Amino acid sequence: MQELRKPLKQRGKKGQVSLSETPGLVITLVVIALVIAVGSIVLNDFRDTQTSGSFAYNASSDGLTAMDNVSNQLGTVGTIIIAAILLGLIVTAFVFFRDR
What we know:
The protein is mainly α. It has helices at about 1-5, 20-50, 55-70, 75-100.
């Protein structure tokens, strides 16, 4: 409750994304995509060397399915990052122009 009584300038910026953090977020998203791509290639190559129906074959197939599910969510994560940046800019603009 004490946090709400402080003037807006003195409040913490929890959950707010600034423009200076954007390159780090973009690089993180790209690294995640690369790790998923390389991991999928390795798992696919490993699965192809196993006997169909074996534990290793089934485990690598499940891993590929899981990586596919995660990679399908990367677009959503990118959209959330962009929305957080835009909301941060809008809030900053309102705070900046409120004082004038």
